[in-house]
Amino acid sequence: MTDAPSPSDPQAPGTAPAAGTGAPRRGLFSRRRALGVAGAGVAGTAVGLAGGIGVARASTVETPAPSGPKVYDFYGEHQAGITTPAQDRLHFAAFDVTTTDRAELVSLLQDWTEAAARMTAGQGAGEYGPTSGPYDAPPDDTGEAIGLPASGLTLTFGFGPSLFRESGRDRFGLAARQPAALKRLPLFPGDNLDEARSDGDLCVQACADDPQVAVHAIRNLSRIAFGRAALRWSQLGFGRTSSTSTSQATARNLFGFKDGTMNLKAEDPAGVGAHVWVPGGADPRAGWLTGGSYLVTRRISMTIETWDRQPLSEQERVVGRTKAEGAPLSGGGEFSQPDFTMAGRGDQPMIATDAHVRLAHPDNNKGVQLLRRGYNFVDGSTGLGRLDAGLFFMAYVTDPRTHYIPMQTKLSKSDGLQEYLQHTGSALFAVPPGAKPGEHIGQALFA
Ligand SMILES: C=CC1=C(C)c2cc3[nH]c(cc4nc(cc5[nH]c(cc1n2)c(C)c5CCC(=O)O)C(CCC(=O)O)=C4C)c(C)c3C=C
Ligand SMILES: [Fe+2]
Question: What is the ipTM of this complex?
Answer without folding.
Answer: 0.99
